[in-house]
């Protein structure tokens, strides 16, 4: 399994928000490197043309004018997400440890610590190359990925699921039932936010639930999508548990 990561993502100085806080990326990388058998790769920043498949020129200009460093970090996250999607298409599952996150970025606006829509940039890049036509997206972040919906939700070839059940058991059943009735797709993309954890903002899921989510998504991809699957880091803010939760998900999601 490929882990898409660049040490530049450790830099907290592009913003003052919780997604950019010191130590957030480090706690994840420490847990993943301790496994020893994951392949780490670096991506390149997304090009202007990559970003314009999803966003307006006005949006790109507004981000660059407001904060050039945030623009660079956002482009690096989007480009790393492109690499994760490409890895998945080649048959190697991938998880992109990136920030800023992306699922609250719409074509001409953004909020929630996001600048560019990483998932949309990755999928539209694959479609531009003629590699895929359809995709199933599971977004298990605490907050609904309105950016994913605004960028991709009207596309008949894209299905987006944001589980909303209020308690842990019903939440997991909701995911299981939905996957069981889904059709085949060319790709599975995961907006992987870990802020539903019992020790994070959502107070709902346990660490073992993220391993289960990874496992059922792996099985779904093998059954419906030729095994093609990738995931992108979104939320998750308690550094004491975030790395363990990501590791649990990767354990279930990998080969």
Summarize the SSE layout with pairings.
Elements: E1 2-4, H1 24-33, E2 39-41, H2 48-52, H3 57-66, H4 68-89, E3 94-96, E4 105-106, E5 109-110, H5 118-128, E6 135-139, H6 146-152, E7 158-161, H7 168-180, E8 188-192, H8 207-224, E9 229-233, H9 239-253
Parallel strand pairs: 1-2, 1-3, 3-9, 6-7, 6-8, 8-9
Antiparallel strand pairs: 4-5
Helix pairs in contact: 1-9, 3-4, 4-5, 7-8, 8-9
Word description of this protein:
The protein has nine helices and nine strands. The model has no long low-confidence stretch (mean pLDDT 97). The chain has 255 residues and is α/β, with parallel strands linked by helices. Helix 7 runs parallel beside helix 8 (207-224). The protein has a single domain (2-253), classed as Histone deacetylase domain (Arginase, Chain A, 3-Layer(aba) Sandwich). It is globular.
Features:
alpha/beta; 9 helices; 255 residues; single chain; Arginase, Chain A; two-stranded antiparallel sheet
Question: How many helices?
Answer: 9
The CATH H-level homologous superfamily: Histone deacetylase domain
At the first level of CATH, what is the class?
Alpha Beta
- Mean pLDDT equals 97
State which percent range the strand residues make up.
5-15%
What order do the SSEs take from the amino end to the carboxyl end, as H and E? Answer: EHEHHHEEEHEHEHEHEH
What do we call the CATH topology? Arginase, Chain A
The CATH architecture name reads 3-Layer(aba) Sandwich
